[in-house]
Amino acid sequence: MLGQTATASGDFLLDDLPGSSGRIDVLLRCIRAALLFSHGLRSDVRVYLVLRGGPAAPRVLRIDSKSARFIRPDERCLALLVKKTLAASPDDLGSQFVELRPGLALASGDLDCVLADLGEAALTMLEEQALDIRGVGLERDDAAYFLGDHLGFQPADRERLNALGATAVSVGPLSLHSDDVIAILSNELDRLEARTR
Amino acid sequence: MLGQTATASGDFLLDDLPGSSGRIDVLLRCIRAALLFSHGLRSDVRVYLVLRGGPAAPRVLRIDSKSARFIRPDERCLALLVKKTLAASPDDLGSQFVELRPGLALASGDLDCVLADLGEAALTMLEEQALDIRGVGLERDDAAYFLGDHLGFQPADRERLNALGATAVSVGPLSLHSDDVIAILSNELDRLEARTR
Q: Which of A5, A96, A174, B44 has the fewest CB within 10 Å, making it most exposed?
């Protein structure tokens, strides 16, 4: 998730997330959509939030479903968890991820931190107007999906990902909220897994 | 949306929605998923929240996308809007919907209020293990979709809807949060509309 304005520090108000956090609320809702289903946490999902807002930016928050605890669906609880984690950042934070809470790790840097951490994963951008997700063969294992926030992708991000061989897919005819895009993408992957299991 | 425990009065805390509202947070997230897309409100969606928790229950809150204003995606803003609307209920509220804010109307009653208000709409339940939504012909116009909350459907609701000829569909192999189910259902309807436009 590329957060163009989402604040990279814990310096936002729980009572006014949209107004005080550079719209980190958009990304919080994506955490829920990516990690949770009815019976708990998905077993093998990592969410990377690229936070480009505020003086501490850029930073990347990584949440790993394998080891994360206390991931609740409601936005305020997620906001509090993220706020505490960002506030706990050490002064010498570098481009390597440092785990600050179970399953939550932070790095100083931008998209490159994510790409270095992903290794050999197949890269796919979720974009309006791209090929329909139902018509392409999705990668099931070691796949990474990139989404913009409410502002979409910046041209430089698109160029960087294209240069690495990223493909682009869309989830349907309308431009949707990022968390809804994740719900639809996850559903497509669930269906793929059910077919190939 | 059938909220088994969601409080029917404005008597809940914005700072602790999951703990103080009978999980009205589950329903708030469904409002966002049903009504909003990237560029604003969907043009022709009505959300009914059946609120069965607390002393004022049962009540139904109806939100109509055609006339609703100030529908924001973040949970706290939605909670405040719903809280104010519930708190503004007149003492003599009956089973007819009374509009209390633009697009937001309240009635005293349960599922029957919804059914009476729907008229001739085709009824469909979203249920795990039912027929796959991709294999059935969805109704595009005047269709009503029923979802449970985190507790699912009560047997009496299922029987009532079945007796009225409701069908059941599922959105995929996993049990998902209600807001994700709505995102996937909306996507299916968007695709249907794009095909038949």
A: B44
